[in-house]
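Inputs:
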Amino acid sequence: MIEYEPVIGMEVHVELQTRSKMFCGCEVAFGGEPNTRCCPVCLGLPGSLPVVNERAVELMTKAALALNCTIAPQCIFHRKNYYYPDLPKNYQISQYDNPLGVNGYVEITGKKIAIRRVHMEEDTGKLLHVEGNRSLVDYNRSGVPLMEIVTMNPPPPGLDQIESADEAREYLQRLRQILVYLGVSDCKMEEGSMRCEPNISIKPKGQVEFGVKTEIKNLNSFRAVYLGVDYEIKRQQRVLREGGEVVQETRRWDDARGVTASMRSKEFEQEYRYFPEPDLVPMVFDDAYVGKLRAELPELPMAKIRRFTTDYGIPRADAEVLTDSVELADFYDACARVSKDPKAVANWLTGEFLRLVNATGTAVADAKTTPAGLCELLELIDKGTINRNTAKSVFEEMFNTGRSAGEIVKAKGLEQVSDTDAIEAAVDRIIAANPKEVDRFKAGEQKLIGFFVGQVMREMKGKANPAVVNELLKGKLGS
Amino acid sequence: MIRAGKVSAREVTQCFIDRMEAVEEKVKAYLTVTPEIALAQADAVDAAIAAGEELGPLAGVPGAIKDNMCTRGVLTTCASKILYNYKPIYDATVIERLNSERFVMIGKTNLDEFAMGGSTENSAFFVTHNPWDLNRVPGGSSGGSAAAVAADECAFALGSDTGGSIRQPASFCGVVGLKPTYGRVSRYGLVAFASSLDQIGPITKDVTDCALVLNAIAGKDACDSTSLDVPTPDFTRALVDDVKGLRIGVPKEFFGKGTDPDVAKAVMDGVETLAGLGAEYKETSMPSVEYGVPTYYIIAPAEASSNLARYDGVRYGLRAANSPDVISMFENTREEGFGAEVKQRILIGTYALSAGYYDAYYLKAQKVRTLLRRDFEKAFEEFDVIVTPTAPIVAWTIGELMDDPFAIKLADICTIPVNMAGLPGISIPCGFKGNLPIGMQLIGKALDEETLLRVAYTFERNSEFGGRKPVL
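Outputs:
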């Protein structure tokens, strides 16, 4: 049987998180009463003219730099002409043969996925189909700054292409992470601020030429991207193995049924009649401008992962979790920098902290615990003032109230008891009170040690130093 | 006089309204008249004067606006059925600027549909008549504005000029028309025909008024990225009666085949007049000029095909009835809404931008445009101003050239290169053929409207053509 290998191309659109639209001053926000965030420009009224939102250009330039692109020294907008009711001018201001950034890449596990271009454009409005063969149009989204990021297949030497559903999903997640780090976009696939149209083809293993590709639309989550791409790879394999041919077409992902279905064939290449937008003047990106933006770039996720694993010696898996959001990464960084035990910090954050974050639905940025607070708590454990179990409940209280570890420990009298006499007394009481268990232990039931430790801890209201308890018990029970 | 209180703004306005009522039936310069707005604005000016407010020279002065400039709440149709009922929700920047000068808006003037044409015969509503000979066209596309000024139906007017649409009708109607440097005046609110060529400018009775109106409308506008961020001089300071030492170039290509000998003679007489006042002139050559018209008819329709795509019946204007789906609604609306000339240009432009033809047409036309610009730059190393006829012929009889669209297009042969190079050009009266005015075009360096105004002013003071009025 012929082995096939897939090649996946990604066209991603990202809505920018600017205050105003790409070519006018209207507010950018998700939802809202239809047609309340519009003006003559984004409605394309006769006589209106676009003016470039410089903040949007800045953000997209930063994004292109973060995606390792070369920035065009001079670039212009083009008009992409096509008729659709959600497009008020019946052309979209976009970029064509002179995009903002070219030849970049996104790092995923073990690969650098080649990016062909990053360009700027404006979003369209939204059509709402209502009963009775009627449609309404909402232009609130019309003119929202949009960035298009397209991968390059085949990739140039040294770079790679996406070849599985897993990689497709990871590429998107990495891309999202970078853009969120930069504050370029919130990249919410469910709200459409990140939209992805993968194209998929398969070819016999080792063959250079690509097969016929299909494009998938309506992928509204990372999970849908994974499932849709996976489905399409398998469908194409089935078609070829059954002696059929893959048709070049756009297919729609049906999330409920878990299948793709043909939307329209792409036999005829759409004619967009691109030409330079005469209402806008060329933009110049000189070294000073690009240099300034490059200097403003934050440390990006992959660089953080490398630094955390190297400088703090934590496992890659922990570093992945800790760099998921810039807020968590900063939190970790702030603690780890001053901590004697960055691994312990990582454990607290990936364990207790994220458990509480998820359980309470709190955003990391809104957590009441501060990095300094966590450091203080870890110090209390380290000094033996409290034991780990107590620390967990203290941390939960810190998380909920914002009080410091020291305050909580003091107020509740939670200091750990390491005083051997007090613990010994408790140990003696427990041994005396449980003769049967003592006999069973001595008969070889070693796991009962846990029972004794638990009893002593309860006797000591959880404050006993567990190491001391263990040692004393073992001495007295004679193991 | 208004500011000095010798006459009230209401009296002046009423006087123009009365004149309009008397002659408009013959001239048909206006698509919409706004006497109520005009009188209200005039009263406000009178009140301001009474309150001791300092006002500018245009305060209380009635002006007419070409109907392709957006006026809030007042019909703006572009003389097209597709915008027959369209009332903009905002004022064009030029209107805002005139409003801040407290001008009085007396009406919206007729034009060739979407400014495409040179006679106003392409208006979807009616033809405007030349006040000098009611059987003849006023020129176009700003024919309504030029006719209204010539017939004293307003004190001044705004026109727009993509390939000669201010200068040619000014020439046909015996008035002054200036197309400023591309980017000198904001295009925000001017309904786009060809974005890289369109420019708004004044049509006035004399050169002084031209400078006053230009003062009011010129200057960088944050809403128009192509408007130039340069200081706006006080153009009235250029009104100096002196052309001594001025170097005039007279390129022979502007007097080519098809130029009426009477027109050529009047223009050369005008050049002699300037020479008599101390200017020097020399015949010269600008070989690329002959490509002006053909390349214009690539670039302008290409941009127009895209600019006019928005008229689809979805949001405003005409929506064709009985369309079963959205595609047929687009098609029926545009079929019903656009006139023949507009459709032809949309077709040409769509073709020129199509894949496979783009390089041969649009891209090549842009290269020719660069050549034209260089030719002008070269000429301006030697000359301060270039003098040509505004149009090779005088106003033709209504309907005469309807079957010969190329003859109409060739009437723009002298004006189009100026738009292609983005330069300022002014048309001033320089003679008559019988009862029909002849215009002389002065072309200047980019942003050198001042030299044009100085030469035009000097010529006006030393010739007898500016003051004559048509009898209506």
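Remarks. The two ends of chain A are 64 Å apart (CA to CA). Residues 299-412 of chain A form one domain.
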